[in-house]
Design a protein that fits this description.
- The structure is a homodimer.
- The first copy, chain A, has three domains: about 45 residues, lambda repressor-like DNA-binding domains (434 Repressor (Amino-terminal Domain)); about 140 residues, Rossmann fold (3-Layer(aba) Sandwich); about 130 residues, Rossmann fold (3-Layer(aba) Sandwich), CATH 3.40.50.
- The first copy, chain A, contains 13 helices and twelve strands.
- In chain A, the strands form two sheets. Chain A has a six-stranded parallel beta sheet, sandwiched between helices. Chain A has a six-stranded mixed beta sheet with strand order 7-6-8-9-10-12, with helices on both faces.
- In chain A, strand 8, helix 11 and strand 9 form a beta-alpha-beta unit.
- In chain A, helix 2 packs across helix 3, helix 5 crosses helix 13 and helix 10 packs across helix 11.
- The structure holds a DNA duplex.
Chain lengths: ~350, ~350
Amino acid sequence: MENSNQSITIDDVAKLAGVSKATVGRVIGNYGSVSDKSRRKVIEAVKELDYVPNTIAQGLRSHSTKTIAVILGSIKNGYCNELVYAIEKEAMKRGYNVLICNTHENLDKEIQHLQNIRSRQVDGVILIPVYTIGKVIPEKYRHLYESLNIPMVLVDRNIMGIEKDLVQSKNEEASYEATKYLISLGHRNIGVIGTVAYSTVQDRIKGYRRALQEAGITINASLVVDAEYSEKHVGQKLADKLLKEHPELTALYVLNNTLCGSVLLELKKRNLHMPDDLSLITWDDDELNELFDITTIVQYVEEIGRSAVKRLFELMENPQSRAEIQRIDTEMVVRKSCGKPKTVRWNSKA
Amino acid sequence: MENSNQSITIDDVAKLAGVSKATVGRVIGNYGSVSDKSRRKVIEAVKELDYVPNTIAQGLRSHSTKTIAVILGSIKNGYCNELVYAIEKEAMKRGYNVLICNTHENLDKEIQHLQNIRSRQVDGVILIPVYTIGKVIPEKYRHLYESLNIPMVLVDRNIMGIEKDLVQSKNEEASYEATKYLISLGHRNIGVIGTVAYSTVQDRIKGYRRALQEAGITINASLVVDAEYSEKHVGQKLADKLLKEHPELTALYVLNNTLCGSVLLELKKRNLHMPDDLSLITWDDDELNELFDITTIVQYVEEIGRSAVKRLFELMENPQSRAEIQRIDTEMVVRKSCGKPKTVRWNSKA
DNA sequence: TTATAAGTTGAGAACGTTCTCAAAAAATAG
DNA sequence: CTATTTTTTGAGAACGTTCTCAACTTATAA
């Protein structure tokens, strides 16, 4: 451990050990056969010089950078950072590092990141695509997704019309169960707030509809309102709108976790209490939900992350493997935000 | 845009364009002089083949990987992910990518990451060190920090006894002001909860003490309790302890944001309301604080991130530059969690 | 002893860039 | 026209690895 100068190369080690760099390579790469004497000398020299192999050079030669990239909307999002946490942990275990790329939910940024990742020779990508249901994929982008010769696993959201591996929660099923739970408590008029453009939210709405249908409740499309992703305080605004226009509502079902706090703000303003005045269910668990005793559908984000990495490594081993979709269980944590619907119109001012 | 095969090299482009790879290099690297004719042919060929330069090869040759690493406790932490968000944004602007490394607040992991980063030839590091005040740095680690020939900027926490650049909030000052605010409302007995081991928290305690001293209030050391980082629900436990042992308390000052939710749980349990029963101030803004109307010292995390990146790039340009400390302003957002102290002993059961 | 097999070793090519250097081509001056 | 300067160009070395291949050493068999 003489010196940590980063420009110590395999040649320096070879020289000090009195062997060829091929032999040094064999020792540090642990392949081929090396005599005990040589091995000892090499190990000695490595320690003496504090040699660390240059990953860049290794990458150039071996076509593997030991790096995976995670492309997502924003690391500030709770779901995303839990996911990245899990991914990094899992990747580290396998000796891989994680590059982080925020798209800011902007398609051009996503494309830009993908291009960049290609030139960086990243070994694999985990992507939460910005792609929204309504939009048709521009032809030039479709080409990019399909021609990109990098193993790729989508998480959470799907890109319509493109065959890629995907790991996500059982959105439809969980939503179906949650709605059924509300119905079983006696609710007939359940307002829904969510960012409709995402495939995930679409699935959740499907489950909601299925439960209503099964219970013979007429579906009122105006009870489902769309929250523009980027809008500030959109949850509060939409809660207000729903409660104003639909005094018959007895329950609120919030499909994105990011919206929930903002919705609570509106309930607070109207002095509505759960579960007496209104029942509430939301997605994803966080401290806020715990503090407010909100019944929540929790996603096993850690497991999603782990599965995505696992699948990605399979893909890296066998790039020809057929795309498959993995749906991870969810769990409904029942707290105290749901009760029987109020029979009296509480929302008399509307 | 014929083919996105990733193994298209500069030689392929040169061949198609009918020039040497040196000329191609000149065109894409935008240096030297190239005739208009050659330039046109090269650009044509690049487009035709959908050529992207191999960053790995560039890195090997030019000794710059266009990558910076961020090493921190956990990306799940609110402060950390805001910081990473800002860093990534700023780095992207300059054509750099960000590698993310969680230490799980474990020193060995931190060391491991630093080693790894060295072998990866990362251009610079932003580090929130796990180092805690009390511990003496083991000699072998000290050596590593000092000999690591990579530009490095510390954020938030300092490593005692090691001279490195540092960007952090004005912790002492902000804490002084916040305490003064509580005192001005009439509080004399202010309980403090924080993870004492971090230099950041130490500074905040210093500010708290200074304000008390200045107001001529005797400092009672037992009012400051230490929250072990890793312990679950430690905030609640300590709030309970403080309130039980010190019925004279009229205000609580929470030094880590991560503890606040847990503390609120205890207040809820005891049915204590802010500001009537108890005043509360905490650090860092999030939705929870907004919802509970908690007066908060907010850090300009985005600015901290930006400053850190800026400084890192200065260091990358001029590695000999002397280490300096940058302290970023904070802002106290006054909400409704603080009021005049209750004169009657509310905590009668203790 | 020699023939053969097994184990060990080093020279050097390859990965895909950047960049130096000297030569060739073009432009300008006389 | 030639001489000189300026612009443009390509050959090839270098970056630090991995890995092939042939040669060498040692062990085993006959």
